[in-house]
Amino acid sequence: MRIVDRVGPGGVSAFLNEAAQVQLARAEAYELLDYLDATYGAPTEAELAKAEAELGEVFGW
Fold first, then answer.
1. What is the pLDDT of residues 35-48, one digit of tens each?
2. 2, 36, 53, 54: least surrounded by Cβ within 10 Å?
3. pLDDT band for position 9 (cuts 50, 70, 90)
């Protein structure tokens, strides 16, 4: 589906701006994760499993 078909001819700029903002936020999150890994070490499998379980409890996964 083309962007213009979804948002109309007047909404393309706003759609692209929002998409760019999402990409920038994602890049910043990955930069933070890289910093935390470099500073404190990557999480262990056990830590990841515990975090996933806790998130599952919160979000009902």
1. 999 999 999 999 99
2. 2
3. confident
Sign for the pseudo-dihedral over CA of 18, 20, 26, 32: negative
- What are the phi and psi torsion angles at 4 (to 5°)? -60, -30
Q: Which amino acid is at 36?
A: L
Task: Give the global pTM.
Answer: 0.69
**Domain encompassing residue 39:** 3-59
Q: How many domains does the structure of the chain reveal?
A: 1
Q: By the 8 A CB rule, do 3 and 12 touch?
A: yes
Q: Dihedral of CA 28/34/35/41: which sign?
A: positive
Write down how long the chain is: 61
Location of structure tokens 């379980």: 53
